[in-house]
Amino acid sequence: MLHGIDVSSYQSSDYSTSGLGFVFVKATESTDYVNPEQSAQASHGRAAGLVVGFYHFLRPGSMTAQASYFVERCVSVQGDVLAADWEDTGVSCADKDAFLREVKRLRPQHRVVLYCNRDFWLDRDTTSYVGDGLWIADITTAGSPRVQHPWTFHQYSSSGGVDRDVANFASTTALRAWAAGSEPEPEDDMAQWITGTVAPGDQPTVVLVPHGTAWSALPNRRLHLGLDVVGDRSASAGVRVAAHDGSDWRVSTHTVTAASGTVDVDLTDEDEKVSLQTTGTGVSYAIEIW
To answer: H-type helices in 74-117, by residue range?
Structure first.
């Protein structure tokens, strides 16, 4: 995991960058506030070689107007990550979805992610739409947020007056490549993640698994299954998993619950694709390669 922080006007523009690989800087709020420190804070991070991101604090009102205000006033350059900060209870799930989609339309070359805390994710989100990734706030062990959905960033602490985060990348190089819209070359010590959701119904969700000579240094593959169902911690779903190694299918069935952790299914280094089927809702998957 890669460590980082997020800052606003409450923090200094010469914050410590020791041991960090990224920083998120507050840019704007609603349609009437710009962080006066954002330029200095972003420049300080860039000078230290950090990957830089910017976030907008959502307030009730026009999401189209807020998206325009954000992208026009944040000092982003290509390769920076853009984020929606969803904390105001007056902003609905539909509102945050609309904001994310509008920012992606206005800035198609940028990665756009959703920031919210665990309570908002479990009790207010109804669509699981996160743009290009979930930045989840949950004060707990770094890298172990208590949600089943795959995450990209985790805010795990606010000790010392600074919000502290980790990114689900093994190096600054890997995060920078992702932020630029490309995928990093495999590194021997870098876990690779493929994430998504499983649509309920008869049609299977087919996921291609990286394999072959380009991945020979990464022999381990594991499928993680999880379940997020808003307002129903007792929910469960059966998932049919079929892995294909180029010649044969191996089929197994598994039960995932909203209250428990992920269900792990080991794959082989020859598996080329996985077929996932369920009749339940809220099923997510993550394939890890390391």
So the answer is: 93-106
